[in-house]
Amino acid sequence: MNALADYLSRFDYAAVAFTKGPTGHLELAAGVNDRPARLFLDTGAGRTVFDATRAVQFGLPRMAEAQCAGGLGATGMTACETTVAHFVLGPIDERDFAATLVDLSHVNQALEARGDRPVDGVVGADILEAREAVIDYKHSRLFLKRGVIGRRAA
């Protein structure tokens, strides 16, 4: 471990490894309803989103339509709320995690044009803020405070 990891472990932080992909994006390996998922770490994204075109593959229900989404190189995209029954990010294990579905086809087309693989979604500020994230670029680790977040009101 390094000094940062040692320090953060005293405050119940968990380390999540990331890699830098061929397009420069920071990639996280995750589990979405017990299926492997490739996510980007996006500090500018307001919420965690998953590709709506893969919703069935990941068993993500389409719930209430949300406001139009912007960002990701487009505007006016339809967004739907969803709940991830089981979301795993490194040692973080969430149940009934609230997220958003957005069509990421244009993002994946751009990635493929640059010789990269498609992405299944992005980890956004909802997780980063709630878990008081610390990014260690030197050692390619994202530190997240343990605990439960993202549950929908019953």
Structure description:
- With 154 residues, the protein is mainly beta.
- The chain has one domain (21-131): Cathepsin D, subunit A, domain 1 (Beta Barrel).
- It contains three helices and twelve strands, in the order H-E-E-E-E-E-E-E-E-E-H-E-H-E-E.
- 32% of the residues are buried.
- The model is unreliable at 150-154 (pLDDT under 50).
| Helicity range | 10-25%
Count helical runs: 3
What fold name stands as the CATH topology?
Answer: Cathepsin D, subunit A, domain 1
Q: How does the helix and strand content classify structurally?
A: mainly beta
Work out the oligomeric state of the chains in this entry. Answer: single chain
Averaged pLDDT: 89
> Mind summarizing the main beta sheet?
6 strands, mixed, barrel
Apparent shape: globular
Chart the SSEs and their pairings.
Elements: H1 3-9, E1 13-17, E2 19-20, E3 26-32, E4 35-41, E5 49-51, E6 69-71, E7 74-77, E8 79-89, E9 92-102, H2 105-113, E10 121-123, H3 125-130, E11 134-136, E12 141-145
Parallel strand pairs: 4-10, 5-9
Antiparallel strand pairs: 1-12, 2-3, 3-4, 3-8, 5-10, 6-7, 8-9, 11-12
Summed up, what is this model?
With 154 residues, this protein is mainly β. It is built from three helices and twelve strands. The strands form three sheets. It has a six-stranded mixed β-barrel with strand order 3-4-10-5-9-8. Strands 1-12-11 form a three-stranded antiparallel β-sheet.
